[in-house]
Write a structure and sequence with these properties.
The protein is α/β, with parallel strands linked by helices. The protein has a single domain, classed as Rossmann fold, CATH 3.40.50.410. It is built from four helices and three strands. The chain has a three-stranded parallel beta sheet with strand order 1-2-3. α1 links the parallel β1 and β2. α1 runs parallel beside α2. The protein is flat, with a radius of gyration of 13 Å.
C-alpha cells in the first residue's frame, strides 16, 4: 500500500507534527509506503523526512509552492505506478 502525504507542517503547530509523526510510524510498521511532499518554506523538514519512508532521499520532495508541484507530476506518477522515478 502507498500513501502520499501533502504537508505544510510548521514549527508553530507542534502537536499536529507530533501526531503526524506517530501516525506515520504506525503506518510504516503496517507496511504502508510513505511519500511526503513538503510545500513552502515554513515546513519542518526534519519532521517531514521522519514521516517519509526509507530512503528519505527518494520519498521526500520539497517544493516552494503548490504551483511547483507541476514539475514533479510525471516523476511522482512514474514512481507511484512503476516504482521508479523518471
Amino acid at each position: 500500500m502507498l500513501l502520499v502525504v501533502f504537508a505544510n507542517c510548521s514549527h508553530t503547530v507542534r502537536h499536529f507534527c507530533y501526531s503526524s509523526h506517530q501516525a506515520a510510524l504506525r503506518a510504516k510498521r503496517s507496511g504502508i509506503h510513505m511519500i511526503v511532499l513538503g510545500v513552502g518554506g515554513w515546513t519542518d523538514e526534519s519532521e517531514l523526512r521522519a514521516i517519509a519512508s526509507f530512503p528519505q532521499t527518494r520519498n521526500y520532495i520539497r517544493v516552494r509552492n503548490y504551483a511547483d508541484l507541476r514539475n514533479f507530476a510525471d516523476r511522482l506518477t512514474d514512481y507511484i505506478c512503476n516504482g521508479e522515478p523518471s
